[in-house]
Structures are given as structure tokens and as C-alpha cells.
Amino acid sequence: MADYIGSKCIICGNSFAENDDVVVCPECGTPYHRECYKQAGECVNKELHEKGASWTKEENADGIRCRRCGYNNDKDKLFCESCGTALHETVEETEDRESKQGTYSGETNDGRVEFSPFGERTVYDKDSVIDGIKLEDYAGYVKSNPFTFLMSFIRFGKYGGKLSLNIGAFLFPEVYYLFRKMKVLGMISLIVCAALTVPMMIAQFAVGYAGFKIAFSFDTTSGTFKMIADVSWYVLMMWKIVSGLMANYFYYRKAKSDITRIRKTSDGEEEVKERIAAKGGVSWAYALVGYGFFTSLVIGTVFLFNRIL
């Protein structure tokens, strides 16, 4: 025991006293208070394990060991440079703080959102304010798939920029905005996609599509019509790309606007949370109705062209 007196348990940060119940890792020899080791369930001195080295009293004396990941930090650091854990909190203080932070995604272990722009690691919790709105409100508004959206929202609100990849908006721009309850933008996107799809559908029905072949009264093999169909395809691809890169930003702006309005016109925190959840989220009904309208608009326009031209 004398070898450990004065050294610190890297989980709780307290120095070992003469009568402390101390256990050591059988692989690297790192000492712990028995209760601390039981709480962790394993040796957290991963750095030594990776190096294949053994604990020494000198090794423990330099810097502050993080009780979560075992990283050896400089003595003047308040938070671990590796995982962001507070270095001077007790285990109880850390557990109490983290229990109040909520959980936004199964991809985070302690309910926090971690963001690393330009190599600078920052940790956000539910009370972090992004462009005047708490992260908790954004999470309540998004509801489904919050982790991806919150990362984008943090980027937009804290570091600027408007681009963020959204695969759903790229593949299905005609219904995605409606799915996320962006009704005005959804109807615009639906009409744009339908108008750009019609020339391509005419070209396909002219040669046979899904078992149907239509003999149009105008020449669908002419250079002019082929150019129209090709231009429509390219413009549609451009619209898909714009949607795929900008949809998250459009959603961020709508979320901020809706949450701000709800906060100004509601009384009581419970009412606010209920209205935020009701206003946000997704709507399969909007998406299905939108897809039905899109399909009807495209097919109807194709047959209408066949009758009047």
C-alpha cells in the first residue's frame, strides 16, 4: 500500500490514503479504490494497455488522468482533451450532471452531442443554445433521427454554412419536404419535380413503359423533343442535388421559426414541449398524399398531352 500513498485513483481523482481499500489492474498495475473499480467494471487506463506498459508512481504523478478514458491530461486542464469529461468533478457530481442532460441519440453514451469542427472538439448538452434556441427544443421538434439533424443544426448555428447532405431529400425531393411538414416548400418541390418528369415519362410511354405504349400525335423522336426531355432530366438532377444539400438548412430555419413562435405564444413548459412536438416530427400522411398527387399529376399530364397535341 505504501507504493500508492499520494498517488491518485484515475476514476475519482482522490489520492490514496493509508487505510484505503486498493485494487490494481492485473494487466497494467494501475491502482484504484475498490468501489471505483467496481463502478467502472474494467481498467480505464487504455493508454497503458495500448502501449503494453505498466503503471508507475511517476507515471501517475504527471498530469491528471481522466477517470472515463484514462487519458493523461496536463495539470491545468479542466476537461479531458480526449473525451471531454470534467477532470475535477467527483463521480457523483458527474453522474448527477449527466443524468440531467437527456439523450438525443443511441450513438452517444452520455446524452451529449459531440462536434469536432476543424479538429476542435466541443461537447453540447440539452441546455446548449444554438442560434437562440436550446438544443433540447430542436431535439423535441425533430423527434425522429435527431442525432444527424442536431449535428447539422449546430454547424449552421455556430459555425455558419448552409450545406449538409440529406440522402432522403436527394432521392425523393417530391415528397421529402412534405414528410418533414414543410408544406409550402413541399408543394413547390412536388410541382417542379412533376413538371420536369412529364417530358421523360412521355418519352418512355412512347416506346413502352410498364406494359403501356402510347402513340402520341406529335413526334417524340424529333430533335426538339429529345432536347426538351434531356434538359428536363438535367434540371431535375440539379433540383435533387440542391435539395440533398440544402434540405437540412431549410428544415433548420423552419424549426427555429416555429420554436421561436411557440415560445412567444405559449404559457408553461409542458404546453411548449407539446406544441413543439406536434409542430415538428414527420407526417407519413402528407408524404403519401403528396406522392399520390405527384403520380396523378404526372400521369394525367401525359395523357392530357396525348389528347390535345
Describe this structure in words.
The protein has three domains: 22-94, no CATH class; 103-159, no CATH class; 167-308, no CATH class. The chain is 53% helix and 6% strand. The protein is built from twelve helices and eight strands. The chain has helices at residues 34-40, 46-51, 57-61, 91-99, 135-142, 146-159, 167-171, 173-179, 183-207, 223-265, 269-279, 284-308, and strands at 22-24, 31-33, 64-65, 72-73, 113-115, 122-124, 129-130, 133-134. The radius of gyration is 29 Å and the shape is elongated. It starts with 21 loop residues before the first strand and ends with a helix. Residues 97-111 have low confidence and may be disordered.
Structural classification: mainly alpha
Helix content: 40-55%
What sequence of helices (H) and strands (E) makes up the elements?
EEHHHEEHEEEEHHHHHHHH
Our count of helices gives 12
Radius of gyration: 29 Å
Spans where pLDDT lies below 50 across 5 or more residues? 97-111
Number of domain units: 3
Strand order of the largest sheet: 1-2
- Summed over residues and divided by their number, the pLDDT gives a mean of 81
Distance between the termini: 96 Å
Q: What's the number of extended β-strand segments?
A: 8
What does the overall shape look like? elongated
Largest sheet: 2 strands, antiparallel
Our estimate of the beta-strand percent is 5-15%
